UniProtKB/TrEMBL annotation:
<dbReference type="Pfam" id="PF07731">
    <property type="entry name" value="Cu-oxidase_2"/>
</dbReference>
<dbReference type="InterPro" id="IPR002355">
    <property type="entry name" value="Cu_oxidase_Cu_BS"/>
</dbReference>
<dbReference type="InterPro" id="IPR033138">
    <property type="entry name" value="Cu_oxidase_CS"/>
</dbReference>
<dbReference type="GO" id="GO:0048046">
    <property type="term" value="C:apoplast"/>
</dbReference>
<dbReference type="InterPro" id="IPR045087">
    <property type="entry name" value="Cu-oxidase_fam"/>
</dbReference>
<keyword id="KW-0052">Apoplast</keyword>
<dbReference type="GO" id="GO:0005507">
    <property type="term" value="F:copper ion binding"/>
</dbReference>
<comment type="similarity">
    <text>Belongs to the multicopper oxidase family.</text>
</comment>
<dbReference type="InterPro" id="IPR011707">
    <property type="entry name" value="Cu-oxidase-like_N"/>
</dbReference>
<dbReference type="InterPro" id="IPR011706">
    <property type="entry name" value="Cu-oxidase_C"/>
</dbReference>
<feature type="domain" description="Plastocyanin-like">
    <location>
        <begin position="134"/>
        <end position="281"/>
    </location>
</feature>
<dbReference type="Pfam" id="PF07732">
    <property type="entry name" value="Cu-oxidase_3"/>
</dbReference>
<keyword id="KW-0732">Signal</keyword>
<keyword id="KW-0479">Metal-binding</keyword>
<dbReference type="InterPro" id="IPR034285">
    <property type="entry name" value="CuRO_2_LCC"/>
</dbReference>
<comment type="function">
    <text>Lignin degradation and detoxification of lignin-derived products.</text>
</comment>
<keyword id="KW-0677">Repeat</keyword>
């Protein structure tokens, strides 16, 4: 195992997309930012220098941060932001996980432009035939406006942020937009096998992904290996990753790779399509070729094709290997978390909020998460100061009702509060995640920091314990860090709280984060020296 050092200079970059020049915040002058490529077991030290005008934090999405929660990155949860002119070295081990993850800013809307791949290679071999080549495909979302302004505007009014102007593939919108020719190109050799590392780094949209004329064999999701799963469409929620093998076995030509939104309701969304080109290498091709053929477009699913999404989301199963954690069978804490949108009284920072109708809010068990302002939760936890939060996050909703109906039997008004759920070290937690239909049905990707979890079952409708237990996969369930809980549906997940610290669980549609679709687990120290939270590093940012 090595120590891998990287430096991120984060600052302004003037860039032209869709014929408009915009000043964005970018890492090392690039969008997407630099790819970090390590081997399992390495130690990563990323020196982040904030040359931007904004408060900044970086999160290493999906990394466990075992005993390094100070490096996790969510703003005001595990750290105060790195202020303009400041710097912080994120230092952590990359142990016990392999595959594709990513990193992104975890403050305001900055992750729209501050993001990049984090690839963890096995120390030995892949558990699938070695591909001839590997390539990373990172999907993003683009605003012509300054994204911090987009976020600030939404916060001031207590409403929803402006919809993005484009989707991107490796930072480029592609040729289906007005005034956009800039397109990612992937050149392939006939007959060769490619490992595509696909990352959904979009801000507010789940995405369908296809390549005309080609199909995929999924071999990993969220940096956990799966049994081979064949499909011609890949569906990802923001935060999720898919590693898939693709054989270049079509007739040598050009094919479009397309990306469009998957949404589960007809509320306004970005309905555009981003494209890239898969180009067969004519020089290595053995068959005669058309010199300039027109590229073929894939037929994309309808934006609301919930069945295709559900099939993909529930399809792959995990690859059981010796050494991998198995599903814990004894559960010590059961929780039922109902979440969705709602309304809350206007907050002081919501200066333009309509006092009569209140602000749009989102909640878990009717608590709309309030981010602390002067000290991060992790510091407060470490110093034993409970003035910043209370440990009374409810284990279940106060009233059970028909979650899938828009008939509100529990008022949509939520309480703004900083509540955590305290867990004993190493206890096993089972969560029922019930998506509600109040104020619109939407599939929410729920992401847990600090852990992977087993997805035992998921389905549409109201959670039914009897039905759910009959569906449990306790043999080879998916192992993920982000689960897309179906609109008006539920998922049951299980994890072992083997990592002391404070870990946020939130919706990975960024617009729902300031609205409060989040809660925090506070995991106590364990009995052994290797289970005790270490002190913060000396360069730890202060508020
Ligand atoms: Cu990828 Cu809390 O985020």
């Amino acid at each position: 195992a090595k120590i891998v050092r990287r430096t991120f200079h984060v600052g302004n970059l003037t860039i032209t997309r869709l014929c408009q020049s915009t000043v964005i915040t970018a890492v090392n002058g690039k969008i997407p930012g630099p790819t970090i490529d390590v081997h399992e077991g390495d130690t990563l030290v990323v020196h982040v220098i904030n040359e931007s005008p904004y408060d900044l934090t970086i999160h290493w999405h999906g990394i466990f941060q075992k005993l390094s929660p100070w490096a996790d990155g969510p703003n005001m949860i595990t750290q105060c932001p790195i202020q303009p002119g400041g710097s912080y070295a994120y230092k952590f081990n990359v142990t016990g996980q392999e595959g594709t993850l990513w990193w992104h800013a975890h403050v305001s809307y900055l992750r729209a432009t501050v993001y990049g791949p984090l690839i963890i290679r096995p120390r030995e071999a892949y558990p699938f035939p070695k591909p001839d080549k590997e390539t990373t495909i990172i999907l993003g979302e683009w605003w012509n406006d300054n994204v911090v302004d987009v976020d600030t505007q939404a916060v001031l009014t207590g409403g929803t942020p402006k919809i993005s102007d484009a989707f991107t593939i490796n930072g480029k919108p592609g040729d289906q937009y007005n005034c956009s020719k800039d397109m990612h190109r992937l050149t392939v050799d006939s007959g060769k096998t490619y490992l595509l590392r696909i990352i959904n780094a979009a801000v507010d949209h789940q995405l369908f992904f296809k390549i005309a004329g080609h199909s995929f064999t999924v071999v990993a999701i969220d940096a956990t290996y799966t049994n081979p799963y064949t499909t011609d469409v890949i569906v990802t929620a923001p935060g999720q990753t898919v590693d898939a093998l693709m054989v270049a076995d079509a007739s040598p030509s050009q094919y479009y790779m397309s990306v469009k939104a998957y949404v589960s309701s007809n509320s306004p969304y970005n309905n555009s399509t981003s494209t890239a080109i898969v180009q067969y290498n004519y020089k290595t091709s053995t068959s005669p070729l058309p010199l300039k053929s027109k590229a073929t477009m894939p037929v994309m699913p309808a934006a609301t094709d919930i069945n295709t999404a559900h099939r993909f989301y529930t399809g792959p199963t995990s690859l059981v290997r010796s050494g991998n954690p198995t599903v814990p069978l004894q559960v010590s804490t059961h929780m039922f978390i109902a979440f969705g949108l709602g309304v809350a009284a206007c907050q002081p920072q919501q200066l333009l909020c309509n006092q009569t109708t209140g602000a749009l809010a989102a909640s878990m068990n009717n608590v709309s998460f309030q981010f602390p302002t002067d000290r991060s939760l992790l510091e407060a936890h470490y110093r034993g100061e409970n003035s910043v939060y209370t440990a009374d996050f409810p284990n279940k909703p106060t009233v059970l009702y028909d979650f899938t109906s828009n008939k509100i039997s529990m008022g949509p008004f939520t309480e703004k509060a900083t509540k955590v759920k305290r867990l004993r070290y190493n206890e096993t937690v089972e969560l029922v995640l019930q998506n509600t239909a109040i104020l619109g049905t939407e599939s929410h990707p729920i992401h847990l920091h600090g852990f992977n979890f087993f997805v035992l079952a998921q389905d549409f409708g109201n959670y039914d314990e009897f039905k759910a237990r009959a569906m449990y996969n306790l043999i080879d369930p998916q192992v993920r860090n982000t689960v897309a809980v179906p609109a008006g549906g539920w998922a049951v997940i299980r994890f072992v709280a083997n990592n002391p610290g404070t870990w946020i669980m939130h919706c990975h549609l960024d617009m729902h984060l300031p609205m409060g679709l989040a809660m925090v687990f506070e995991v106590e120290d364990g009995p052994t020296p290797d289970a005790i939270l270490p002190p913060p590093p000396s360069d730890f940012p202060i508020c």
